[in-house]
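FORM 12-B: Structure-to-Sequence Request
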């Protein structure tokens, strides 16, 4: 019943409080019982503290004896226990002892202050008798000032500290190594400046988080020669069949290392744990961007010409235009219809699905993931004001293509992190089919294609006259509409555009 880590005076007071409650027939010890017994010694520490705070111990005892008068004529049959309120007071006293006492023992000072702080009714009665609470707090705070320390005091066992340091050191090494492996892939295989930059920043932020640890602490704990893990291996650890397999294995190693860093980092400080937690969440976003981007690059590897069709804007029939464009080299057909009812749009989308399947090209629906799903299209394309990539993918499913229109570098970066399959970049040139308030132009194409490896289609006014300029700005894929839909010979125009793009890709060190 007597809590551990108490001074003899506090232990005697709690024992006396239990006896007092028993004599009174009370089932539980209340705060008033404890304070009354703390004040039983005339020159005790509790009486001295209250006197310094403006309170007479005699007056307090008289008031408490009046309150804690017997409630039964005989002692209780069952020994009393400490009430929930007294338990909370002891918890508070224990916290105060940790704050103000070097030996962390709960003393009379801590009990008196905890009683006043935790029991509103008791504090009010004492204030009526003249208690100055601020003076009491100041008296206790000044009685045992904490020692000024350059570093936080750690009471952990030395062996536990070394073990923690070894775990953090090994996990930090794994995380740094895995980050470098993935960064090399993005840098040298994908030639993706954006993802490489994000991974480099993650490495630097990891170093900054680990700087919260004492200097040299991780190295002091390192003992590679005695590490059992260096001799434990599996056959699969030596098997790597592709660049993607290397990246996947190291990405999982990275996330596992971050989790271990976070959990054991909390032993050092909550701040370190929170910092590492944020870094771990960032790895999930980058993982999606890298692997969804890789999947899209594979599916769209040969897709250079993206045709946007609207039935009313085609010079000939829609089905013939699609058939001829596909024969000329168009790899993606996007249906963009703004003026049809939902039923009419779905009916047309289903027909386009049949025509594109017969032609062996991909089919994308503009703006409407619901129609794309019902028509069994290959994907959907959304703008900046339409549904997000996340919401669109919830409708079309995880395997569908989701394209995004981007009009700035920031929007292109966000599309990559959101998990877009490809992006439209523009408008590059003035267009007869759509009016734009701003024209980012060729400079945007230059910036985006230099930064990201995600399939990017230059869009807006691209035709036989402007395609060379788009290519000169860095475009390796284009999206067109009027140039083919209004042509007398859609196949010939598509073939010329495709040939120009292919020639550029063949001469480029980095065909995207």
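FORM 12-B RESPONSE
SEQUENCE OUT:
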């Amino acid at each position: 019943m007597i809590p551990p880590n108490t001074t003899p005076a506090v232990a005697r007071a709690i024992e006396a409080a239990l006896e007092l409650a028993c004599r009174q027939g009370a089932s539980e010890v209340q705060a008033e019982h404890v304070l009354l017994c703390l004040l039983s010694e005339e020159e005790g520490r509790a009486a001295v503290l209250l006197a310094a705070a403006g309170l007479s111990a005699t007056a307090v005892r008289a008031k408490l004896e009046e309150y804690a008068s017997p409630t039964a004529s005989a002692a209780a049959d069952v020994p009393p226990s400490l009430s929930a309120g007294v338990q909370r007071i002891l918890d508070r006293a224990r916290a105060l002892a940790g704050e103000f006492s070097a030996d962390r023992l709960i003393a009379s000072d801590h009990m008196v202050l905890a009683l006043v702080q935790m029991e509103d009714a008791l504090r009010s009665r004492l204030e009526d008798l003249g208690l100055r609470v601020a003076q009491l707090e100041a008296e206790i705070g000044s009685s045992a000032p904490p020692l000024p320390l350059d570093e936080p005091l750690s009471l952990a066992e030395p062996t536990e500290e070394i073990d923690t340091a070894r775990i953090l050191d090994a996990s930090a090494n794994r995380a740094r190594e895995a980050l470098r492996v993935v960064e090399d892939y993005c840098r040298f295989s994908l030639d993706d400046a954006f993802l490489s930059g994000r991974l480099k920043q993650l490495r630097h932020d990891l170093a900054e988080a680990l700087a919260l640890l004492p200097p040299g602490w991780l190295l002091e704990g390192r003992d590679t020669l005695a590490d059992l893990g260096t001799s434990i291996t599996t056959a699969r650890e030596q098997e790597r069949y592709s660049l993607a397999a290397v990246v996947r294995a190291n990405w999982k190693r990275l996330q596992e290392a971050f989790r271990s860093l976070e959990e054991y980092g909390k032993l050092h400080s909550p701040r370190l744990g929170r910092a590492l937690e944020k870094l771990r969440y960032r790895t999930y976003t980058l993982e999606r961007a890298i692997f969804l981007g890789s999947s899209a690059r594979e599916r769209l590897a040969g897709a250079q010409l993206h045709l946007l069709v609207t039935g009313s804007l085609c010079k000939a029939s829609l089905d013939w235009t699609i058939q001829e464009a596909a024969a000329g080299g168009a790899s993606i057909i996007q249906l963009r219809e703004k003026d049809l009812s939902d039923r009419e749009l779905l009916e047309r989308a289903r027909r386009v699905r049949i025509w594109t399947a017969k032609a062996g090209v991909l089919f994308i629906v503009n703006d409407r993931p619901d129609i794309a799903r019902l028509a069994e299209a290959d994907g959907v394309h959304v703008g900046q004001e339409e549904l997000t990539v996340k919401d669109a993918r919830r409708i079309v499913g995880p395997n569908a293509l989701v394209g995004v229109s981007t009009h700035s570098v920031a929007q292109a970066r966000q599309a990559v992190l959101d998990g877009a399959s490809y992006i439209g970049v523009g408008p590059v040139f003035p267009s007869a089919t759509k009016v734009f308030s701003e024209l980012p132009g060729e400079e945007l194409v230059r910036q985006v294609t230099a930064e990201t490896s995600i399939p990017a289609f230059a869009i807006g006014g691209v035709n036989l006259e402007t395609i060379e300029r788009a290519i000169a700005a860095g475009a390796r894929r284009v999206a067109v509409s009027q140039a083919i839909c209004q042509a007398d010979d859609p196949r010939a125009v598509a073939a010329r555009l495709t040939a120009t793009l292919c020639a550029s890709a063949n001469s480029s060190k980095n065909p995207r």
